[in-house]
Amino acid sequence: MAFRIAIGNNKGGTGKTTTTVQLAAGLAENGKRVLVVDMDPQANASRRLGFRFSEADPVPTVSEAIKADAAGVATDAITAIGWDAPYSERISLIPARFDLENRISEAAVLGAVSRLRKALDGVDDDYDYTLIDCPPSLGHLTQLALAATDAAVCTLEPEYDAVEAAVRFRDFIDAQAAELKNPGLTVIGYIVNRVRSTLGAHDFQLDGLPDLFGDRIWCRLEERTAIKDAADSAAPLSALKSTTAKNQSSNYKELAARIIEETQA
Ligand SMILES: Nc1ncnc2c1ncn2[C@@H]1O[C@H](COP(=O)(O)OP(=O)(O)OP(=O)(O)O)[C@@H](O)[C@H]1O
Ligand SMILES: [Mg+2]
Question: Which residue range(s) make up the domain with 59?
């Protein structure tokens, strides 16, 4: 049965999708089977994994799965990714499209927050990990993810607003987990992303992080063009030729190994 991890932060652009996608690659490199669930109407994870929604040839996405409000229905939305082997053999995707925005208005319907959990019921039993990419909000779409997941991971930048938003994400989970019928849900790890060691302001923020998040800070990832290039070209970092890309790819593989260790303990 898959261990589910929702990746979030209440601030945009902190690397939620980058982490979801490259961590899926890292887990696959560690031999794990991964299901990526895209819970953001921007559908960035879907595109970066090689998926394109076509109005002419529509397929079910996470939006239809949530709307259906039926146990196990997300199985119909699982699709192959566009990457090469071995990733294509180990990673599958439940994609998003902009229509996911329309699920937000259903928030007031009784039980609506449990619909992703219901849709995923039994669907990820054959995977080792399910990674759920959240939008930069604490609204209904993120709440659907938090209600369905075993654990949360937060990505942040060493910038004031991103750190504050990470605290909001953590405190929201602590306050709302029971309401989401997921008591005990916590942020198990923080990934500090886009670190620029030349910036004094970053050093200042980095120094303060242990006071806020203690030993839950899993790693620091530098700001590197290769990471952006991988996202733009919809590829795993290992598919890029540069040495930087290879080094960053190893970082995500190491991060994946740490997560495997943490979640099997
Ligand atoms: N470590 C990094 N080095 C360089 N570029 C990065 C790094 N991490 C993320 N990026 C780039 O920054 C942009 C934002 O990252 P990403 O899309 O992962 O953030 P996000 O938190 O998912 O954003 P959103 O809140 O919009 O969903 C992307 O263009 C991505 O390629
Ligand atoms: Mg994103």
Answer: 3-264
